[in-house]
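Morning, I've got a small favour to ask if you have a moment. I owe you a coffee for this, so here goes:

…
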Amino acid sequence: MNTTDNGDVITRCTLDTDQETPATQVAELVAELEDCEVTDLSPIYYTVSELLADLFSSPPRATADAALEFTYEGYQFRVRQDGTTTVMNAGV
């Protein structure tokens, strides 16, 4: 994880696009940021699990530069099809 004080960004990282359940990485990242267990968080399955899996398993051409933006547990995520992820506070 690459934590930064630059603007409103909390962290930038790259998700493993080959992982079978990529949404698990998002939950693990939030648990790390919140210093809690993943089981303390609301289930991500009901929010963006399938969308992330589709973005990574059947990505559009690289020239489309597709991205998925969503909010989970008070954080705003922007995940690009190559796994590049930016996390910000959702209230920003």
Remarks:
- Strands lie at 2-3, 9-14, 67-72, 75-80, 84-89.
